[in-house]
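Subject: design request, 432 residues
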């Protein structure tokens, strides 16, 4: 009986010793040296390090913590350099033994692939144990999709240049411009605007521009969609990204100049209508005097010289009173009436008939004393020279003038001579 009791006591002691040794072996040495704290990180509910997102998108990062030790942890903290503020928000600062906890943070995606290290740590509640900590990688891959449009406009052509970069092709490509005729648009890749533009491609298109005079201004717009494979915070794929680019510009089509009919003078040089000489006024070289008798009107008879010997016998005053036109350059007696339109010394012409320059003074004709002659003047005298017809006068004009002078001058002179002879031949004292 006593032996049995002794054996039972020994068995109990061995069992207690074994239990203590087992408990000491199950407890981690120092906490952080073993698997006391574990963590799993996911971005937008995707545990992959390089999850695909869009540049500028706000990401939700989740940190799942678990304590595998038989002691609790206090002062639990999650540090993430990519998170806003650098620290994740946890529901509490302690983690019980074999407990779990989920922390969250917001990450703003920057273009490119970014992978960093996330560290979680806590202080064991049992004295003598070192700090528990764990470090895991986490990151994302942010892709940028960019569409640019360049436009050039002139009086003859509208030009467009599209440049696209992104992780996937640009679909449903559109190009709109109020000045553009869609049917006339041509592109370098094909006849018209393609429906799909590959990633990293450049496209040039052109079309004729409106050419009516006026000012043209408009805003061109290019648009399309791309399925970049980005995910939402819940982990579901996002709808295709819509891209658009605009470019404003304008040009002016000037009005055509007014048509000016060129005038071809005798010299062969073209002159515009402003330089053309008015009709009825022949061109005159600078420095030359206008003709003494003025211009010849159509239908008027020009006098090549004096009205013959009978007119020469009469004084200029009598010839003027009889209504006989005095040829140009003939001397006028003092007090004789001036014919209408005859030049007067010191007069300024307000218009320019016969090639005279407007506003230029008409040169005065010096007065020459009249010398009445009984017969024909000797050759070489000044009067005979004045009787000579001017250059360019036709023979018909001279004959007409001689005939008119004979009728107008010779007949009145003959009548006066007959009357004088009849009075002198009648005897004195006779009755009529």
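Subject: RE: design request

Done. Sequence follows.
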């Amino acid at each position: 009986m006593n032996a049995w009791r002794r054996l039972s006591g020994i068995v109990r002691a061995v069992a207690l010793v074994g239990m203590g040794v087992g408990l000491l072996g199950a407890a981690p040495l120092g906490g952080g040296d073993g698997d006391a704290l574990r963590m799993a990180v996911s971005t937008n509910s995707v545990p992959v390090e390089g999850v695909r997102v869009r540049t500028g998108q706000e990401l939700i990062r989740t940190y799942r913590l678990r304590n595998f030790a038989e002691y609790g942890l206090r002062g639990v903290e999650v540090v993430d350099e990519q998170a806003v503020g650098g620290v994740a928000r946890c529901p509490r600062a302690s983690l019980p033994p074999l407990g779990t906890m989920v922390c969250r943070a917001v990450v703003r995606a920057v273009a490119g692939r970014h992978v960093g290290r996330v560290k979680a740590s806590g202080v064991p509640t049992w004295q003598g144990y070192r700090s528990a900590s764990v470090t895991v990688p986490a990151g994302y891959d942010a892709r940028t999709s960019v569409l640019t449009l360049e436009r050039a406009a002139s009086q003859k052509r509208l030009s467009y240049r599209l440049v696209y970069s992104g992780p996937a092709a640009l679909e449903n490509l559109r190009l709109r411009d109020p000045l553009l005729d869609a049917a006339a648009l041509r592109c370098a890749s094909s006849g018209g605007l393609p429906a799909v533009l590959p990633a990293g491609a450049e496209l040039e298109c052109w079309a004729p521009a409106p050419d009516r005079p006026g000012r043209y201004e408009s805003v061109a717009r290019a648009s399309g969609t791309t399925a970049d494979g980005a995910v939402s915070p819940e982990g579901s794929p996002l709808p295709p990204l819509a891209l658009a680019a605009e470019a404003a510009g304008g040009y002016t089509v000037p009005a055509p100049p007014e048509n000016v009919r060129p005038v071809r003078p005798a010299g062969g040089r073209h002159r515009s209508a402003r330089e053309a000489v008015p009709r009825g006024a022949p061109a005159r070289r600078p420095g030359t005097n206008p003709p003494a008798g003025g211009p010849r009107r159509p239908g008027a008879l020009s006098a090549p010289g004096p009205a013959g010997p009978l007119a020469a016998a009469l004084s200029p005053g009598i010839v003027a009173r009889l209504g006989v036109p005095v040829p140009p350059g003939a001397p006028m007696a003092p007090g004789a009436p001036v014919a209408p339109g005859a030049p007067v010394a010191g007069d300024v012409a307000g218009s320019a008939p016969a090639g005279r320059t407007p506003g230029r003074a008409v040169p005065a004709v010096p007065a020459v004393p009249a010398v009445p002659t009984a017969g024909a003047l000797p050759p070489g005298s000044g009067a005979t020279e004045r009787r000579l017809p001017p250059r360019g006068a036709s023979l018909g004009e001279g004959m007409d003038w001689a005939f008119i002078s004979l009728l107008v001058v010779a007949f009145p002179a003959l009548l006066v001579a007959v009357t004088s002879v009849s009075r002198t031949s009648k005897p004195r004292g006779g009755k009529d």
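The radius of gyration is 62 Å.
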